[in-house]
Amino acid sequence: MRLAELTTFHLGGPPQSLTPARTRGELIEFCRAHPLGLSTPSDTDVLFIGGGSNLLISDAGFDGHVCLVATTGVVVEETSETEAIVTVEAGENWDEIVALTLARGLSGLEALSGIPGSVGATPIQNVGAYGTEVGELIISIEVYDRIAGQVRTLTAAELEFGYRTSALKRAQQTSGMTQYLVLSVSFGLRRDAQSLPVRYAQLASALDLEIGQTAPASLVRDTVIALRKSKGMVLEEADHDTWSAGSFFTNPIVSDADVLPVEAPRYPVIDPLSGATIEGKTKTSAAWLIEHAGFSKGHSVGEGRASLSTKHTLALTNRGRASTEDVLELARTIVAGVEDKYAITLEPEPTLIACSL
Ligand SMILES: Cc1cc2nc3c(=O)[nH]c(=O)nc-3n(C[C@H](O)[C@H](O)[C@H](O)COP(=O)(O)OP(=O)(O)OC[C@H]3O[C@@H](n4cnc5c(N)ncnc54)[C@H](O)[C@@H]3O)c2cc1C
Questions:
Q1: What residues are annotated to the active site?
Q2: Domain tally for the chain?
Q3: In terms of pTM, does the model score above 0.90?
């Protein structure tokens, strides 16, 4: 088989082996069969896949062992009149869990509706959308520590969430190892049918609210999904605009706002734990930089095989016959164009496997 069958880009060559793990026991068994030692330079021979929605895998495939995280299970504990803790096994589908919590009268996750993938992957890059980041709602996660060979609990503080990153992602990037396999995630939610305060201007406007006001959480979910659909950000097999990894580039964060073009958007950078603005950091819009560097929606390479989404400049898409190399060529063209015009280097958001920009 080709890993293309497991990724939302529909790209990726074959693995050496593929092991679906439907229980914790099977996940841990896989880890024990493929140990990671402190002396191991990197574990280029193991790859965990959840929903495959944040992965770009080489056409040649992955010369190692893939474990498909497919565990299931949800426990809801009503801890007080106003609060509940929801603990979810890693392989559960993220959006189904968002829907389930709302149906149980629990709010908090509504702005994160419609995001593809598994629950276990959400803490890795601190998944975020429409003014909410998952790190704000996570209390703790359970992981299998592949070096210590034991299950551990990591608190939200230990996960050091940042914009599209966490201690897990940073460690993975620097060491090239997945030391911590996420087994489950515990979310602290409110027993309230009303949403969290809406923080995202476009969402507030679609709901006819001022920033900071609330609405029925289920209405926020429906509105987010409608907005996402209009941008090709909800998976739909027949729509090639969704054959992507969502946003391909992160929004650049700079320490000196003067390096940004005068007209470029500027946003504060928020600390997900405290909710406070981080002084001295400014975030700009990667989509704005791409558009103003001359790449419009639908811009393509490879005789149209890979292109920017026709609905959203930040998504690189496979139009049906693309190769991973086509997507990489498109990504390189965009990075070079933005660098030439603005001297800002865009960073990819998805995990690149056996390939690079
Ligand atoms: C149409 C579309 C829209 C999107 N919109 C958004 C959005 O609004 N906001 C956003 O933040 N992201 C978005 N994404 C990106 C993606 O959906 C999220 O990052 C999602 O959390 C990835 O989950 P996954 O299970 O598919 O991860 P995968 O793609 O399977 O894996 C991603 C990375 O996490 C690792 N991983 C997966 N599971 C585990 C585990 N249990 N333990 C340890 N490591 C693990 C993998 O090894 C890999 O490095 C979008 C993607 C698409 C295709």
A1: 164, 247, 349
A2: 3
A3: yes
